[in-house]
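User: Here's a structure from my thesis project, written as structure tokens. My advisor, Dr. K., wants to see whether a designed sequence matches the one we expressed. Can you design one independently, without my sequence as a hint?
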């Protein structure tokens, strides 16, 4: 392996790559991170320093080789520490967005986490322990989904986008799919209905207008090229005012009369009516099936409160065909996700979902409950912050469902607002975020806001410590 010869602005001043690699902190970092990564860091630090010396913006250490080496070692230690903390690491969501897509949407229940851990080694994902022979893949999740939704059969793939792709490519390739113009939406994370349709090989037949689509608009568009009627839940988007779209039952009835498939992409996957918590307009899957939909898809990690998955339920004959499509083989769930999904679904069947699934616990927490927690949390800050100039105020606010569900939900909350005379809101926010265990807060009107709705009670101590370290 030949290392490029690095010529320095003042060779006497800059250490060589080898010299840096042979001394602390590189030696320890190499054992933690591997030589390749540390070498890349050392090279970039030396190159950066060389450029600085050449441009005369060297600042510290000019003319003193030992000071330059110490400065580079110091920077290397910081880079190495950042690198060690990088990747998918745990954070605390204090932003009050329950299904925060950038933070992994639904936090899993303790039971789901335990199920994932159990499944991580060898596990009976496609094996029937009773008979000692090969079995179907994940039959328990299928059985539980049938019980929960009233559907004849069920199937789960990687996410809801994959579910739509599988359904459309299996049943509508080279044929037309009729969709209302009011439902040609983009849902966070680049899910766009027209794009998925195109990639599945189906042709989009748009009907109606943005705000109003009638049953006769669908009916007039039906031809011998039509494979399917598709209804898409607009999720993160609401059209209000002069609007109209046919109900699921009307569309399902019409599709049946014309002998074609009616598929509803329900998106968030509510198992029960959540309007009591201020979450309205979310279809309950059992209701969609009861209305006559042939196939329904929804996400596992939105309102269901489980792992990332795309679940399809519906008529046995159709789900059976999906199961034998080559796309299913490419999109199916792995063993750990299957185990977490089974555990999540079991929680519903035990009637414990609202108490044990974090998403439902957070969504169902009342404004009074959060106000009470916030008051005692603020009191703990006051008790411990001593002479600090930190200003802590409680204020009424709103939490969000997030994850492309129920954008206008009314989730009243209490926020803990932080200000400091010597720090901008950006600085406070970033110092909380850069804590050993990052605390993700939100900025609003010059203040940093902490919303305890999305902070588990056992995480409160970590949030408190991060706030006290602001000084
Ligand atoms: C969120 C959503 C999707 C995408 O789901 P993923 O699980 O993120 O792939 C698709 N359709 C609807 C209606 C949605 O709400």
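Assistant: Designed independently from the structure alone:
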């Amino acid at each position: 392996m030949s290392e490029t010869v690095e010529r320095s602005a003042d060779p006497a001043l800059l250490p060589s790559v080898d010299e840096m690699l042979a001394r602390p902190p590189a030696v320890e970092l190499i054992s933690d991170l591997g030589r390749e990564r540390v070498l890349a860091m050392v090279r970039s630090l030396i190159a950066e320093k060389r450029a600085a010396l050449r441009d005369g913006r060297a600042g510290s250490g000019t003319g003193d080789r030992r000071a330059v080496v110490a400065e580079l070692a110091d920077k290397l230690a910081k880079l190495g520490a950042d690198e060690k903390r990088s990747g998918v690491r745990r954070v605390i969501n204090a932003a009050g967005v329950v299904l925060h897509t950038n933070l992994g949407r639904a936090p899993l229940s303790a039971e789901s986490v335990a199920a994932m851990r159990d499944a991580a080694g060898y596990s009976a994902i496609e094996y029937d322990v009773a008979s000692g022979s090969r079995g179907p893949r994940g039959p328990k999740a299928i059985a539980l989904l049938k019980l929960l939704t009233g559907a004849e059969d069920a199937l789960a793939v990687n996410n809801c986008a994959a579910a739509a792709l599988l359904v459309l490519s299996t049943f509508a390739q080279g044929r037309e799919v009729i969709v209302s113009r009011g439902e040609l939406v983009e849902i966070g994370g680049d899910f766009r209905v027209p794009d998925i349709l195109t990639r599945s090989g189906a042709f989009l037949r748009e009907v109606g207008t943005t705000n109003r689509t009638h049953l006769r608009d669908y009916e007039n568009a039906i031809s011998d090229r039509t494979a399917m009627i598709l209804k898409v839940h607009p999720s993160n988007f609401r059209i209000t005012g002069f609007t109209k779209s046919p109900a699921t039952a009307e569309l399902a009835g019409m599709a049946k009369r014309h002998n074609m498939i009616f598929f509803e992409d329900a998106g968030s996957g509510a198992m029960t009516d959540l309007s009591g918590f201020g979450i309205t307009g979310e279809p309950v899957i059992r209701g969609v099936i009861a209305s006559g939909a042939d196939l329904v898809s929804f996400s596992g990690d939105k309102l269901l409160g489980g792992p990332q998955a795309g679940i399809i339920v519906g008529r046995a004959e159709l789900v059976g065909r999906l199961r034998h499509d080559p796309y299913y083989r490419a999109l199916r769930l792995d063993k750990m996700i299957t185990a977490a999904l089974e555990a999540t679904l079991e929680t519903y069947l035990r009637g414990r979902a609202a108490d044990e699934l974090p998403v439902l616990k957070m969504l169902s927490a009342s404004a009074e409950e959060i106000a009470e927690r916030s008051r005692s949390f603020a009191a703990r800050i006051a008790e411990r912050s001593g002479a600090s100039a930190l200003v802590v105020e409680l204020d009424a606010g709103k939490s969000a469902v997030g994850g492309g569900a129920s954008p206008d939900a009314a989730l009243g909350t209490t926020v803990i607002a932080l200000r400091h005379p010597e720090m901008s809101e950006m600085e406070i926010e970033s110092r909380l975020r850069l804590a050993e265990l990052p605390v993700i807060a939100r900025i609003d009107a010059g203040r940093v806001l902490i919303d305890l709705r999305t902070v588990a009670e056992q995480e409160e101590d970590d949030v408190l410590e991060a706030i006290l370290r602001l000084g």
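When you compare it with your expressed construct, this may help: The chain has a mean pLDDT of 93.
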